[in-house]
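FORM 7B: Structural annotation worksheet

SECTION A. Query
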Amino acid sequence: MKQPTIAPLRRHPVLTTFGVLALLLVAFVILFDWNWVRPPLERYISTKTEREFRISDLHVKLGLTPTIRMRDVYFGNAKWSKDEPAMAKIEALEFSVALRDLPEKILVPRVALTRPELVFERLPDNRKNWILSDPSDTSPSKLRISTLSVDHGHLRYIDHGEPFVLDVLGSTFDPASQEKVKDADAKPSNNRYTTQYDFKGTYHDAGFSGRALTGDVLSFQESGVPFPLKGQLDAGTTKLAVEGTIADAANISAIDAQLRIEGQTLANLYPFLLLPLPASPPYQLQGHLVLKGNRYTMDDLAGRIGSSDVTGKGAYVDQKPRPLLTADLHSKLLDIADLGPLVGVQTRQSGGKPAMSQSETSNRPVAKAKEKAIDPDHVLPAGTFEGSRLQKIDADVDFVATKLVVPDALPLQSLKASLHLHDAILKVEPLDFGFAGGTIASRVSLDAREPTLKSDVQVDLQRVRVDQLVPDNETIAKGAGRVGATLHLKGTGNSIADAAAKADGRIAATVVNGRISNLLDAASGLNGGKVLALLAEGDKDIVIRCGGVAFDVAGGRGKSTLFVIDTEQTQVLGSGWFDLEHERFDMTVAPKPKQVGLLSLRTPVRVHGSFKKPDYEIVKGPLLLRAGGVVALATINPIAALLPLIETGPGEETNCANVQRTVGGAAKQAGGASKPAAAGKGRTP
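SECTION B. Predicted structure
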C-alpha cells in the first residue's frame, strides 16, 4: 500500500536533492548568527587598514541593498594621528550598501548613528584618516554617503593644512517639544527641523561658534536631495544667520537660502572667505544666496555699511587659478567717511573706539599686524594695505552712489567706480566724483605681485566751477570760471603716505573764462586806495585772463615750474615747493598791479608750514623799505610821505598762450582756453 508514495521520490532524485538543500538553506539563514563571522571580520579589517577594529554585535539583513547593524563599534585612528587613538567610537551603527555600484564605488544610501564620537583629520599633504585603504593613500575616496542621521553625536574635524578645527554636537528631538531649543529664534517651524547641531571651532586663527537646525537627515555625496537648514554663526563681532535648503553637506553642491550678516568691519571676513574686503565701519547686509555648480550668487542684496545704504547683486565663482568675485552695487546716499578705511584712514566704531584696520585682520602674528602709527600732524593716510590679499582672488565690481555726504562741506556730489582685479593687479577705472559742478575723473592702478605695492594714480579735475569751490565765502562765490587740473604720480609703498613719499610725476592746474571780485584783487595787492574807492563806489567783477600752476614731482618732492594768475589789473607770480614725505610746503606769491595807484603796500606773501597746519606771513623786506621811505620823507614833507605808497604798476600782461601750453592737459580739462591778450604785449611768466 505504501509503494505508490515512495516511487515518485525515487523517480525524481534531483528535485528531491534541490528541495532538501533549499530547506537547509532557509533553515541556515533563519538560524544563522552573524556574530559567528564577527571575529574573522574584525581580524580582516584590522589587518587590511592597519588599525584596530572591533564590535560587540553584528546583524545583516540581506537583499540587493543589504542593511548592516553593529553595536559598540571601535575603529582606531591612523598611525600618523597625534590627537585621538580612535577615529570612531559608536554605540550603534546601521547602514546600507548598494551592491550594484560595486566595485566602482562604495555607495551607502543611508547611515544612522547612535551616540557616535568621530574624529576626522587631514594633513597638509592631503592624507586623510577616513581613507580606509593604505593610510598614506592620497587618492580620492570611493566611499559615498548619501544621507546621515545622528542621535546624540560628537564630531571633531581637524584640518592641519588650513588650519581648521571644528567640534559639532548633534542630536534629534521631538519638534513638538521646545525644551532642547534654547534660542527662541531657532525654534522649529512647520515640523521641518528635527535635528540640532551646536558647533564651535577656529579657522585661520579666527574663532567661531553657532547652532544649526536640520531635518531628520543630512544629504551627502550624490544624493541630490536638499535638506532644510536654519542656523546662526558668531565669529567675534561677525554674526551670520541663514535659512533655506542645502544639498550634500560634506561637499555642498546646492544652496537656496536667505542670508543675513552683520559685523564691525568687512575685513574680518577675510579668514573665512579669503576675500580681500576692505576695513569698513559696522555693517549689516542681507540677500538671497544661491549655489549652482561652482557659482554662488547673491540677489536682492540690501543693507548698510556705516551710515551708507547699499543695494545690488553679486556673484562668486570658485575657479582656478583664483576665484572670481563680481558685483553691481548702488547707493542712494553714501557717507564718504565710510570709505576712509578703504584708503587707510582709520574710522570709529560705535562707542568711539577705533575701527579694525586691514592689517589687523590678517592671520599674521599680532605683533606684525599692528597698524602703522599715524602722526596726528599728518593728513596723508598711513594705514597699510595687505597686498597679499590681492593675490588670492580676481574681481570685477561696479559701484554708483547718487548722493554723497562729505566732511567739511567739500563740494563732492556723486561717485561712480569700476574695480577690476586680475592676477594681483588692481585697476580702478573709472573712479569719478561729481565735484563743484564738474568731475574728478581718476584712474588708479595697484600692482601687488611683489611684497611692496606699485601704484600709478591719474586724476583729472574737469570743468570745476569756481563759484562752487567755496560756496560759503560770498566774495569767492560771486566769481565765475572753470578750473581744470591733472595729476599723474607713480610710487611704491603699502600705504598712501609711503607711496606719496617716493612719488614721481607732475601736477598742473589752470582756470579759464574766470571772473573774481575787484575788491578781492585789490586786497590781494594791499592796495588801500583802491579798496577805499571800491568800498565807496561798489565792488565789481574783473576778468581773470588766465591762470596756471605746474609742479614737477621727483622722490616725493614737488617744485614749481609755473605759478601765475593774470587779471585785468594784477599779475600774480609765485614759486615754491612741497614735500609729500614730511607733508610740508613753502610758497611765495607776489602780486604785481598793472596800474598806478595810491596807498599801496604791495609785498610778497609767503604761505608755508605743514599740510595739517598751514601758516602764512607777509614778506617784510619790501614792506619795511616802503615804511622806511614813508618815515624818511615825512620828516621832510608830510605830503612827500605818500610817494613810497604810490603803485607804479610793474605788472605786465601775461602770455596766456604759453600758460595754456605749459599746463597742457589741465587746460583741456578746464573746458577750453581763455582768450589771451596780444602776444606782442605779453611775456612768459
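SECTION C. Observations
Residues 570 and 598 are 15 Å apart (CA to CA). The mean pLDDT is 75.

SECTION D. Sign-off
Analyst initials: ____
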